[in-house]
Request: fold
Amino acid sequence: MDNPFRYGQVVDGEHFCPRPALQRQLESFIRAGQNAVVTGERRMGKTSLVLAAAGRVRGLRTLYADLLGIRSAADFCRRVAAGAGRLERGDSLLRKTCRLLSRLRPTVTFDRETGVPVLSVDARSSDPEESVEAVFDMIEAHGRSMKLCVVFDEFQDVLRMENHEPLVALMRSRIQFMGDVPFLFTGSVRNDMVQLFRDSRSPFFKSALPFEVGAIPDGEFVPFLAAKFAAGGRKADESFLRLVLDEACRTTGDVQELCEALWQVTDRGRTLDRSDIERAFVLLHSREGTEYERSVSLLTGLQLRVLAAVARIGGASVQSAEFVREAGASSAAAAKKAVLRLVALDLLFHHDGEYKFTNPFFRHWVLKKSL
Ligand SMILES: Nc1ncnc2c1ncn2[C@@H]1O[C@H](COP(=O)(O)OP(=O)(O)OP(=O)(O)O)[C@@H](O)[C@H]1O
Ligand SMILES: [Mg+2]
Reply:
């Protein structure tokens, strides 16, 4: 049997642990044409959830555009056009999309491996605002002829587009007049989504209902994971799986990554216990160790000691006398400055009043190395 755990990619079907309460709520937004801004910590399962919820609405087509890393209006148009090209397998819709995007010189190629058509546009030489208008004209036209939902994933990156202000304002004004087409904007709470939807100066201020994706409740995730282990002849009882959830800080993708490693280091017939977690960590560290080494090589002595102190005693009060002593810092201010640098390097993040490791397995490695 193949390893049943998946991480680092969108999951669906048997790999998707149902999240009935969240799915129902999102589905009701979609049916009502209600725009929503879906935020949550990284790897919590935002993209998978949004696509699963949209997938359950009968007759709905989802235009999914991943906006990660866009830097220009041309990039935005390319991503949205590619999403529109995936709306349906048949030819006729694709032809219509091409017609609607004719101002952007669309081309269709075929993926070498899958044979699936790939729609591309060239908006580099067009006026940025006109290109964005053309893309929204296309969405609007499709929205009139089919039940459509639009997912803009990693939407915060629109703020990184060159001269983004008028473009973002234009997007907002087009979206607000498409009442029947629900737009779902997803992104991580640790980035510019907050600025886009909660800052009164932003055109998107309060334009979509907030929707938070947290951890899958233990009562739902534990039986899902146990069944996967059981299907491969491994016994993972509830208390063991709660330990796994603790070690992965209940971040959905990290839980799956740890389970994938646990599967890898165990055989059929085994009842999993804490020693397997240790062996799974060894495997994870061997895969990711080079990256960890690189990260710590960039740190000053103080930053490294502060990182190790957060690993040992937590980052709830990094300016306390105890923390400053633990980190060997000269002052509370120095400790805080080092923490902020670790956040800038994306090794730590701030959540619920506490600084935490972005990657729980890196924390474990730091502890083990006694840095
Ligand atoms: N419902 C689910 N059931 C089981 N595993 C899930 C579920 N949702 C997410 N995962 C796990 O989390 C990983 C990340 O999922 P996904 O890409 O949907 O999260 P995300 O929050 O969009 O992540 P990112 O912040 O990287 O965009 C998946 O590869 C999978 O391991
Ligand atoms: Mg995502």
